[in-house]
C-alpha cells in the first residue's frame, strides 16, 4: 500500500502475479502498464537508466520534486477529469519515479523553475508552503541543484516550455521529454538534442545561483 498525504484515504494498488513478474524482469514501471499511458512508462524507464537529469519548468514544480499533495492536486485539475483511482495511479507512479533520487548512487539532477510555478498556491496555502519547504530540502542534497528564474529577469530563452533532458550512458542515448497538452513528446534527434542542451544552458545562466535561489524561496515562504 502506498502512503498518501493529506486527508485522502490511501489507495491500495493491486498488482497481478503477471505484473509482478514483468516488473521484476523489466522495471517497476511495468506494474502500471494496464493503468497508465505508455509515454509515462517510457519517461520512468528513461529516468531509471539516466546518468544525469536536467529540467526547466515555467508553470509547475517539476514532477521529480513535487510533494504527494501537490501532485495529487495537479492531477485533480486535469480536464476531462480523472477518476479517483486514475489520480492515485498517477500519484503513485510519480512517487516511484522520485525514488531514483534516493539511490545510493543517484543521477545528478539540475532543475530550473520559474517564479510563476512557485507562487501558484497549488492545493491551498498549507500545501504550497510544504512544497516550497520540500524544494529547499531537496536542493540541499549534494546531487540536486535547484535554480529559480525570478519575474525580474523578464523574457528569457525557452520561456513557457517544460523540458526534461535525460542524459543516457552515452550522448547518442540522450532523450528530451517535452510536456504537451496531449501528453509528453520524446525527442532524440542529435540536432534537436544539441538545441535543447544550449537552451537549458542559457536558462541556467540567467537563473539565480543555487544559493540565491534558496534565499528567494525562503522569502516566498515568509511572504505567505
UniProtKB/TrEMBL annotation:
Domain DUF5753 positions: 42-219
InterPro entries recorded: DUF5753 (IPR043917)
Family annotation (Pfam families): DUF5753
Origin: domain of life: Bacteria
Protein name, entry field: DUF5753 domain-containing protein
Species for this entry: Streptomyces gelaticus
Amino acid at each position: 500500500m502506498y502512503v498518501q498525504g493529506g486527508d485522502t484515504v490511501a489507495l491500495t494498488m493491486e498488482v497481478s502475479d503477471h505484473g509482478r513478474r514483468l516488473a521484476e524482469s523489466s522495471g517497476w514501471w511495468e506494474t502500471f502498464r494496464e493503468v497508465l499511458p505508455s509515454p509515462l512508462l517510457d519517461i520512468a524507464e528513461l529516468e531509471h537508466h539516466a546518468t544525469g537529469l536536467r529540467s526547466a519548468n515555467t508553470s509547475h514544480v517539476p514532477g521529480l520534486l513535487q510533494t504527494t499533495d501537490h501532485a495529487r492536486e495537479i492531477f485533480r485539475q486535469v480536464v476531462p477529469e480523472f477518476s479517483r483511482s486514475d489520480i492515485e495511479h498517477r500519484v503513485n507512479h510519480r512517487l516511484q519515479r522520485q525514488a531514483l533520487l534516493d539511490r545510493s548512487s543517484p543521477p545528478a539532477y539540475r532543475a530550473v523553475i520559474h517564479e510563476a510555478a512557485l507562487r501558484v498556491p497549488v492545493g491551498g496555502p498549507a500545501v504550497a508552503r510544504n512544497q516550497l519547504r520540500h524544494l529547499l530540502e531537496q536542493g540541499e542534497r549534494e546531487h540536486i541543484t535547484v535554480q529559480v528564474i525570478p519575474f525580474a529577469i523578464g523574457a528569457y530563452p525557452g520561456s513557457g516550455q517544460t523540458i526534461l533532458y535525460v542524459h543516457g550512458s552515452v550522448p547518442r542515448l540522450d532523450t528530451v521529454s517535452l510536456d504537451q497538452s496531449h501528453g509528453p513528446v520524446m525527442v532524440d534527434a542529435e540536432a534537436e538534442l544539441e538545441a535543447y542542451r544550449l537552451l537549458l544552458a542559457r536558462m541556467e545562466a540567467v537563473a539565480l545561483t543555487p544559493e540565491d535561489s534558496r534565499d528567494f524561496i525562503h522569502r516566498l515562504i515568509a511572504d505567505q
